[in-house]
Amino acid sequence: MHFLANLFRTFHLVFLVLNVASVAGITKAAAVQTHFGPMCDLSNDNVSLWLPSDINTRGGRPLLEPTAPHPSLVILAVGVQNYTCLDNGTYFSFGAIMELFDISCIPQSARASFTTFVSELWAAAPANTTGWDLVGASGVLLHSFALGQHYWVADPLAPASGALNPMWDFRSTSLPRVADPQTAYLVGYRTGIVPAPTDPARDAEWVTLAPLVVDGQPDGLLADQVFRLNTNGGMPPTNSCVPGSPEIHVKSTLNFWMYGGAWATPS
Ligand SMILES: *[C@@H]1O[C@H](CO)[C@@H](O)[C@H](O)[C@H]1NC(C)=O
Ligand SMILES: *[C@@H]1O[C@H](CO)[C@@H](O)[C@H](O)[C@H]1NC(C)=O
Ligand SMILES: *[C@@H]1O[C@H](CO)[C@@H](O)[C@H](O)[C@H]1NC(C)=O
Ligand SMILES: *[C@@H]1O[C@H](CO)[C@@H](O)[C@H](O)[C@H]1NC(C)=O
């Protein structure tokens, strides 16, 4: 678990440099919380200033505008994206398992380079360290920063179709003991998807997502909107695959910016 030890040290360094005094306060949070904000103030963050101005000009479906002036949470995700091989020899995105960490204390201008730095640590981790190893160990090691997991679930609107939807799930961490479990998760669907700006063959697409609506209600109240950006890795190999070959897991390190929802920063 050298990778996790290094990640843990990295977080502590960041927090020492930023002199964040509030970390201890967060772990002493009340037994039942109805609301939970980021570790550091995000009211100066503006995703529109961060996105390249030509982000929506290289194909795909345009990213949407943020639904709130400032994000309610900014997350580092570390894990794998899964691919299966279709009968026609092309890779098909089939879920992911990623561990989620609060990086609101890292200034907006430093988040991309921090994320790339973590992706280099993750790339250097032993080949047999899986996304699930990370999930199992980091909740204990990094409890001040660990938020929960990102994975994919059967589409609640068509459970038998084989279609999957992304889930952000904070219910497993000891950190947020929320009264209403619906405030601690979100099942989403894509509203926009564009190629990653610098290395689209290697880095997963940048995406906007909205809550999936099931029986007239959003499936989870964690956020009203999610951006996926600052992606490092995650795309499948560019060559064709052999139909019937086993699922592959591609390492991926990226950011989610969440807007609105139950965890919005009090303004
Ligand atoms: C964010 O930046 C964009 C682009 O400069 C600007 O139009 C917008 O007003 C800013 N939003 C906030 C909430 O400051
Ligand atoms: C392979 O099959 C999938 C699913 O039917 C389809 O979406 C994709 O366009 C196909 N790719 C090629 C190169 O034929
Ligand atoms: C993706 O890969 C992980 C192993 O790294 C596995 O646990 C998970 O079930 C896979 N499938 C989906 C749909 O996420
Ligand atoms: C991973 O590989 C290393 C060395 O090759 C080995 O010592 C270790 O037990 C393996 N871990 C797992 C979880 O398989």
UniProtKB/TrEMBL annotation:
Q: Which UniProt keywords apply?
A: Signal
Q: Which InterPro entries does this entry report, sorted A to Z?
A: DUF3455
Q: Where is the signal peptide?
A: 1-25
Origin superkingdom: Eukaryota
A single Pfam family, by name?
A: DUF3455
Protein name per its UniProtKB record: Malate dehydrogenase
What is the originating organism of this protein? Phlebiopsis gigantea (strain 11061_1 CR5-6)
Task: Give the source lineage, highest ranks first.
Answer: Eukaryota, Fungi, Dikarya, Basidiomycota, Agaricomycotina
